[in-house]
Amino acid sequence: MKVLIVEDELKTGDYLRQGLVEAGFVADLARTGTDGLHLALTGDYDLLVLDVMLPGLNGWQLLQSLRRSGNALPVLFLTARDQVEDRVKGLELGADDYLVKPFAFSEFLARVRTLLRRGKASIEPTVLRIADLELDLMRRRAQRAGRRIDLTAKEFALLELLLRRQGEVLTRSLIASQVWDMNFDSDTNVIEVAMRRLRAKMDDDFEPKLLRTIRGMGYVLEASD
Questions:
Q1: Which residues of the chain have pLDDT under 70?
Q2: Distance from C-alpha of 127 to C-alpha of 108, rounded to nearest angstrom
Q3: CA-to-CA distance for 192 and 102, rounded, in angstroms?
Q4: Contact criterion met (CB below 8 Å) for 75 and 48
Q5: Fewest CB atoms within 10 Å of the CB: 37, 97, 146, 204?
Q6: Whole-model pTM above 0.85?
Q7: End-to-end Cα spacing for the chain
Q8: Is residue 85 helix, strand or coil?
Q9: Cα 5 to Cα 64, 77, 211, 219, distances in angstroms
Q10: DSSP letters spanning 145-180
């Protein structure tokens, strides 16, 4: 993950960059708002850490310019300005979070990780596909060749797992832990029964067949070449 820090206080900027690098991130540092805006617009960053009081453009102006350009880069404001009006202004301009100085680095790092997870989630697909099979995660609907497929909650979760890991052979123990949140018991046939019912709904009446049983190993969802 790549983070851009725009901070004119020398010690604070260096401290944040070093801390992020030690935590496993790639971190760049700009000392002015003008330089920060240029890097934010031209660099491939996952998060912008932005001070308000900056030479050149201030943080609010930088954020305004960034949003007007259509850039949706997540922004964490860091500032000594702790008045409610200042926090509200930053959020209304499009900031995602606000942290008031002084702060503990552990809290800063937690905020960074939360925003990065949130940003990653926002770009994940909401519809999973293979061949003519579609699973709409938002509407909780499945269809194949334009025909609606009615699934139970467990069948939906099972198909979602198979689609997210399509092409991989999924073992019974992995399926049990991911879908049923349990350890696999060799004496139970719950997975086999669920797979048989899912196959009947999404495969039996269609071509090509997508769900295969790999004897002694598990199951795989894949389209034939």
A1: 81-83, 119-125, 181-187, 225
A2: 33
A3: 56
A4: yes
A5: 146
A6: no
A7: 35
A8: helix
A9: 17, 10, 47, 46
A10: TTEEE---HHHHHHHHHHHHTTTSPEEHHHHIIIII
d(CA 105, CA 122): 26
What are the tokens at 139? 């509407």
CA distances from 195 to 157, 165, 191 (A): 12, 15, 6
CA distance 77 to 79: 6
The residue whose two tokens read 């894949």 is 222
Question: Position of tokens 């699973």?
Answer: 135
CA 194/CA 102 separation, integer angstroms: 54
Pairing status of strand 147-149 against strand 211-214: unpaired
